[in-house]
Please model this.
Amino acid sequence: MIIYKSEAEIEMMRKSSQIVARILSELREMIRPGLETRELDSYAEDRARQLGAVPAFKGYRGYPASLCVSVNEEIVHGIPSSRRLQEGDIVSLDFGVIYEGFYGDAALTVPVGQVSNLARKLIEVAERAFYRGLEELKIGNRLSDVSAAIQQEVEGAGFSVIRAFVGHGIGRNLHEEPQLPNFGLPGHGPRLKKGLTLAIEPMIAAGHWEVEVLNDGWTAVTRDRSLSAHYEHTVALTDRGVEILSLDSRVEGHGTGRSANA
Ligand code: MF3
Ligand code: CO
Model:
């Protein structure tokens, strides 16, 4: 069952998502060669608590940290450690919080110093695929229209879409219905209605989409060890159009994240 949100509930989710946005912007500024990935985790956790929020991932199904840090061929759920970032790496940061009962969830992929052209393009395509999917998030469209648009953007750029992980509904729970695959044929699934709140999160690979989970039980990597990138926002569909709740309204210069394409 999909839980559609009222304007008041969306306002709550705007708050939790803005905390996530702000912390991700701060983490992005910290990225440099030599930084240990666990330094990012402890910063994110402390900052969330300072802002009155609770990190959402710590303890979720036994996940041991507050932040997911996935480097290079790691797709998602990388566990922060004493590993040091190196020039040329790409690093995905995935973070979520609970604030006054509502979740916010977002992710981005950041280059460490100078990276290859391939790495740069992969990061760009993950972000572009998110925005292409968002264009289809309109009242009256069907959910898989979003999936199909993301897949087309990614494959059109010569990359592949990870199949094993999906976007999701979000609200008083981190994962609600519906699931949102980043691939599929258009014209299927529920019709999009106002009050829908989703975490849209393309995860893509430079090579094949097959996934392997490392022995830590969490870190998902591409089986062919090709580079992977991830881009995610919590979004809401209202009768004013779609709003990116987790876009950092203080720094990204995209205004409030509101648009009017419904
Ligand atoms: N953004 C991810 C998701 O939506 C993060 C979950 S990591 C976990 O599933 F550790 F909490 F599982
Ligand atoms: Co998510």
Q: What stands out?
A: The mean pLDDT is 96. The helical segments are 7-30, 37-50, 117-135, 143-156.
